[in-house]
Amino acid sequence: MFQTLRSIIGDNWSYRGQIWYLAITDLKKSIHGTWLGWIWLLAKPIVYVCAFWFTLEIGLRVNKDLADGVSYVVWLAAGFFVWNYVSTMISSGSNVYRRYSYLVTKLQFPLPVISNFFSVAQVIIFVLTLGILSIAMVFTRTPFSIYLLQIPILIVVMHVTFTVWSLLASPLSAISKDFHNLVKVMSVPLMWLSGVFFDVSRINVPWVRIVLAFNPVTFFIQAFRAAICDRYWVWAHPGLYAPFLAIFIVMLLLALRIQSRLGKETADVI
Amino acid sequence: MSSRPATYIQTAATRSITAIRFSHVTKTYRLYSSEQKRLLSAFLPKVSFKTVKANNDLSFMVRRGESVALIGRNGAGKSTALKIITGVTAPESGLVEIHGRVSALLDLSAGFDAQLTGRQNLRLRGRLWGLSQTEIDQRMDDIVEFAELGPYIDQPLRTYSSGMRARLGFAFASSLDPDILILDEVLSVGDRAFHKKSLARMREILVKHNLTLLFVTHSLGSAKQFCDRGLVIEQGSLMYDGPIDDAIAFYENMTD
Q1: What's the rounded Cα separation, in Å, for the pair B85 and A186?
Q2: What is the structure's pLDDT at B27?
Q3: What class has domain B1-30+50-101+212-256?
Q4: Nearest CB to A102: which of B86, B112, B123?
Q5: Distance set, CA A49 to CA A56, A78, A178 (Å)
Q6: Checking phi first, is residue A81 left (phi over 0); if not, alpha (psi -120 to 50) or beta?
Q7: For residue A82, what are the contacts with CB-CB under 8 A and spacing of at least 6?
């Protein structure tokens, strides 16, 4: 298992020069031939946030006690933009070997690098959405605090976590469409259960709070809101990061096992 | 038969006399009775499956500068051997040595992304091959001109015909100055004029760059034109290794 980990890190290190290029190429591919170009990458999350903000705050008059000066739309967007990255990684990131089958079956290309550059491409979109969020913060007069400094660390941790997820799920999706369909079906309920639209820490049922604490999506939504809205350091709250760390270690061990068992077989089954 | 675990050695050493060495290479495909069983095999050690040996104790050696045809029926194991050489798939046992840089055209899609344009694909593949942006740009005009794609070079590959893909793939693979060029049945697709042009390009690079060519084809005429030596493969094993004329005669006798 340690050897698999070393090989995954080694492959990514030796392809470090190409990872950025592959990520940018992937984004360019998705907007090729469009008039609005890069705007399309941001259109979906922005439109969704606007729609949810209108429905929840204006229509349903959802009230939420927010920290001083934080507007509801900023709080909502901080969670939804995280979800936008996560949902792509859960659905498409779990199927990268089929998505990039030409790299798997036609070229000598290290498969773990595919998960990495795919996530980098999604992180680029996420960072752009954070740029939009900072503009929203200026307009809504939401204060910029020192806690924003933890965002780069959170981005790296999120990237590593969902790259590990992709390493775990992609070989399984390559050999089983059932598995990939299950992942896709579960992604929407996961959004509703992960605290994008509510504050998990305010749930009154203790066991539900405990279960949700082990959901990595919930962790990242809470962590980014800690940096942007709630203003505290994530590492000062072991109750927040300890369950996430436990799940991350389990995910990593599973990913290494699956990579070592199925990694070499993947090109034969696609 | 050797049962030692597979060893794959790839070096850039172009001074070695040997370009490719297969020593007792066995590649087995696992066939599960259902997709569910294959999924379970990721977690449980005792899931039953059948095996097919695509390469069975296969041994051969190709010297630098040689042009060798791999001849055999469909399913004989030729393409699997090429995939092992290119590192796309891994054998269970045996030793594989590759000395020099390999450029391969394993099928019509040529490892290109259907959503990218021809030009974007060339840039991407060039980067993956290890070329700098300048080196890619230097080759670009030549590749585009050779592939005769005209304005299609800036169109997504999904709009290309199979002949156009083969032209682009061959133009790219042959422009990289590889030490070892591997072609799997790709030249049979383009039109006659391109076929002639490709053969001329192959002749040119074979002479100029001391290239090692591994050529898989069902066109025995093409094999004869380019290759000095033929390897006849049947059911994953080497049946004959010798001069191309004799290899073709052996194959024709075998299939009669």
Answers
A1: 40
A2: 93
A3: alpha beta
A4: B112
A5: 10, 10, 31
A6: alpha
A7: A126, A158, A196, A217, A220, A221, A224
Residue A54 lies in a domain: yes
Among chain B residues, the shortest Cα distance to A180 is held by B39
In a domain, A24, yes or no: yes
Of B106, B115, B128, the CB nearest to A29: B115
Is A140 in CB contact (< 8 Å) with chain B?
no
Question: pLDDT per residue over B199-242, tens digit each?
Answer: 788 778 777 777 888 988 877 887 888 888 999 999 999 999 99
What is the Cα–Cα distance from B35 to B53, expressed in whole angstroms? 20
Owning domain of residue A124: 18-269
Tell me if chain B has a CB within 8 Å of the CB of A67: no
Nearest-neighbour CA in chain B from A38: distance (Å): 16
**Among the partner residues A18, A177, A261, nearest to B35 by beta-carbon distance:** A177
Q: Which two tokens stand for residue A10?
A: 């080694």
Mean pLDDT of chain A: 90
pLDDT at A63: 67
- Chain A CB contacts of B39 below 8 Å: 172, 175-176, 178-179
Is A6 a member of any domain?
A: no
How many domains is chain A built from? 1
